[in-house]
Amino acid sequence: MILQRLATSIRKQDWFAVVIETLIVVMGVFLGIQLGNWNAARLNQNEAQTVKERLQSETEAVLSELENYTAFHRANYLETFGLIKWMEDEARCGTLDDRIKLAILAVGDFPPPRFSLPTAEGLVESGRMSILSPLSVEMATRDIANEMKFITQQWQRYLVTKQTAEELYYQAGMSQSDDLNLIVDEFEDRGKIDLIRFRTLERVCNNPELVALVSNSAQTQTYYVMYLESVANRLNAYLETLEASE
User: Fold this and answer.
1) pTM attached to this predicted model
2) What keywords sit in the KW lines (predicted)?
3) Rounded CA separation 114/140 (Å)
4) 137: Cβ–Cβ under 8 A, 6 or more apart, which residues?
5) pLDDT score for 123
6) Burial class (CB in 10 A: 0-12, 13-18, 19+), 34
7) Measured in whole angstroms, how far is the alpha carbon of residue 73 from the centre of its chain?
8) Which of 10, 27, 70, 147 could lock onto 228 through a cystine, CB 3.0 to 4.6 A?
9) Where do the DSSP E strands lie in the chain?
10) Peptide bond into 111 cis (omega under 30)
């Protein structure tokens, strides 16, 4: 009896309507998922474009700062090489003027890099590199972020110039007025050059060991400048990669 009623109910069912209703439900779910995916892809694309624009802007800013930073170090090592010639010249060494004072101070003036690519470094540290496309941009961004960190490491390697400066200042009897406890950092403001005293220049002139130290310092800074120039080339190449991906 029950089976008969069930069979009768099934025969009376409008299967065409059931199929249509099922298809509508399935298509609704499918379209909902697709719309969600399309919307997520659009948001990711917009975010990726915003990130690329930020990377480009930061790279251009770093290139400008790097140019000034490199020029400063280049001027410093040129002054240092001029100082070496003065130290080796018996007729000139011992005759002190402001230019020579500045050259002596230049040996210890070796500022660290104060620029970075925070967006690139943030993407690497957060593991969100996949937001960038194509793959060439992702790889280039990872490489340039690592290069920015390496600049500081290279600077730390070249801090031997500071040690050379301390020896030079000691040999020259450098002080400010009668303050014998002077520290090197006090000379960052070169406008106070007239307050600086070098009391024992005879220990600097024709001093082979000191000349060798200063020469090593100048050469070291020369290598640092060459490295900075290579970084500038890499940054320019990275900028081209970003622009080509737009």
Assistant:
1) 0.74
2) Membrane, Transmembrane, Transmembrane helix
3) 22
4) 52, 241, 242, 245
5) 87
6) exposed
7) 16
8) 70
9) 174-176, 196-198
10) no
pLDDT in tens, 135-173: 888 899 999 999 998 888 888 877 767 678 778 888 888
- Measured CA to CA in angstroms, residue 14 lies from 3, 26, 71, 170, 178 at distances of 19, 19, 85, 104, 109
Helix, strand, or coil (residue 127): coil
Tokens standing for 132? 């960038």
Mapped onto helix, strand or coil, the DSSP state of residue 176 is strand
What amino acid occupies position 143?
D
Single out the residue of 85, 114, 121, 81 nearest to residue 216, CA to CA: 81
Summarize the chain as % helix, strand, coil (round to 5): 80, 5, 20
Q: What is d(CA 21, CA 13) in angstroms, rounded to the nearest whole number?
A: 13
For residue range 23-56, list pLDDT tens digits in order: 666 665 655 566 555 544 454 567 778 888 899 9
Phi (first) and psi of residue 50, to 5 degrees: -65, -40
Mean pLDDT (the chain) is 78
> Using one digit for the tens of pLDDT, what is the confidence trace for 93-122?
878 888 888 888 888 788 889 899 999 888
Give the residue carrying structure tokens 């002054």.
Answer: 79
Other beta carbons within 10 Å of 217: 28
